[in-house]
Amino acid sequence: MGISTVAVVGLGYIGLPTAAILAANGVPVTGVDVSSATVGAVNRGQVPFVEPDLAGYVSDAVSSGRLRAVSAPEPADAYIVAVPTPFMDDHKPDLSYIEAAARAIAPVLRGGELIVLESTSPPGTTRRMAEWVLDQRPDLSLDGSGDRPVVYFAHCPERVLPGRIMVEMVTNDRIVGGLTPEAAQRARELYQVFCQGEILLTDAVTAETAKLVENSFRDVNIAFANELSLVADKLGVDVWELIRLANHHPRVNILQPGPGVGGHCIAVDPWFIVDAAPEEARLIRTAREVNDAKPRWVLHKVVDAVADLGVPNPVIAAYGLAFKPNIDDLRESPAMEITTEIARTFPHATVLAVEPHVDELPAELAGLANVRLASTDEALAAGQVHVLLVDHTQFRALAGPLAGEPVVDTRGILR
Ligand code: SAJ
Question: Rounded CA gap, 73 and 274, in Å?
């Protein structure tokens, strides 16, 4: 492989594991991040967030001297860009982080480098990244035209599941899309360093769209389950039993309803397809709307349960704040949204938030006078209405203690 040094730009949930795994496979890596706190933490061998097994990889990589964090790109043979791609208020993609990364890399290029975009991106973004780089460096080219040295651009979307990143980074198949076939080949060689899955070559725009389609597929299927939960409620049918029975059909595999869809991927990526093909992506848009509407429906169920209780200042226990089970990640979490709305809707109630994976409430809840962090035991003892929001493993034992209590169970935990 003609790649002996790699720079990973963006040391977040994807960039840092990628940098650490490359280093673990013997490649000298510089990790680039605009946050001086992140650069400092990584250079001390520390990980600024929780992900199983990552801490060991990072401390080994730093102490072996193969991983070094810096605040601006340095010359390297290959660059992997793993920066955020959020959307703006109108659901339009915000590519400013990618543009900033491209413009920071451009000045240190010498020609012959590979630049891989890993960030989940709207169709056409790899080409735009190339334009941002080459606008700044007219002495370089995509294809060697005019005798200018080539820079190779590819997209290789990450597909790892938070909580299993260090495993899936090695075992998952990878899609690699090049702006040119040569760029795809070079990117394949880079990922072969640590990826044991199949590496599938295509063009950049197909790779970009494939990643968005994967998460949209999951979003549409979760929306189906969430819609069923509303239909079943109206019909007086238990949705969990309904899905369990239907899934005995050999060609039916319905996902599980919940309080809504959280995380930074599935609730975001489908909007990039809607933005790129607004007239055509009707089902994908509707799935987003169905999933985004679920927290409000849950809130109405809590309002009904409190009304049935008929107590002026009730104690409402909310179990779970994370966006999915057995993690500490509270960002974009429907459980957070629902707990906040419960506290605002019932200013005279006491809201006990139970989240075994955190030691303190996040700012948006800590700022509400009627919410505090509580243990499961405390919530069971004091709660008058119980709202089950996350199916953390330890909450599975709640079925017994909550029997006969007023419960809103968004995850089927009591079954
Ligand atoms: N959820 C349900 N019902 C289900 C399954 C999930 O309500 O039956 C909810 C979860 O509670 C959570 C949300 O959906 O709020 C998303 O969770 P998830 O486990 O489905 O996915 P993420 O966001 O942790 O990771 C996804 C993965 N994509 C797919 O499975 C297609 C992962 O492989 C991607 O790498 C990741 O997005 C990403 O970074 O794009």
Answer: 33
pLDDT tens per residue across span 284-335: 999 999 999 999 999 999 999 999 999 999 999 999 999 999 888 898 999 9
Taking residues 20-35, what's their average pLDDT? 98
What amino acid occupies position 227?
A: E
Residue 388, H or E segment: strand 385-388
Q: How far is the CA of 162 from the centre of ligand 1 (A)?
A: 9
Does the pLDDT of residue 1 top 80, yes or no?
no
DSSP-derived 3-state class of residue 218: helix
Q: How confident is the model at residue 2 (pLDDT cuts 50, 70, 90)?
A: confident
- Asked whether 295 lines ligand 1 (CB < 6 A), one says no
234 is catalytic: no
The answer for 147, left when phi > 0, alpha when psi is -120 to 50, beta otherwise, is left
Residue pair 267/336 in contact by the 8 Å Cβ criterion? no
Q: Tell me which residue has its CA closest to atom 7 in ligand 1.
A: 258
CA pair distance 175, 342, nearest whole angstrom: 42
Strands 6-9 and 29-32: parallel
Helix (H) or strand (E) holding 104: helix 96-105
Mean pLDDT in residue range 240-269: 97
> Which amino acid residue places its CA nearest to atom 34 of ligand 1?
159
C-beta atoms surrounding 143 within 10 Å:
13
- Whether residue 256 contacts residue 294, with contact meaning beta carbons closer than 8 Å, is answered with no
- 265 catalytic residue (yes or no): yes
Give the rounded distance of the alpha carbon of 82 from its chain centre: 13
What's the whole-number average pLDDT of the chain?
A: 96
Q: Are 266 and 83 in contact (CB under 8 A)?
A: no
Q: Is the shortest distance between the CB of 17 and ligand 1 below 6 Å?
A: no
Q: Give CA separation, 49 vs 19, 81, 313, in Å.
A: 15, 19, 37
Q: E strands along 23-63, which residues?
A: 29-32
Whole-angstrom CA distances from 176 to 7, 313, 320, 402 are 18, 57, 37, 49
Q: How far is the CA of 266 from the centre of ligand 1 (A)?
A: 6
Identified catalytic residue from 156, 195, 265, 324: 265
User: What one-letter code names the amino acid at 397?
Assistant: A
> What's the confidence (pLDDT) of residue 90?
86
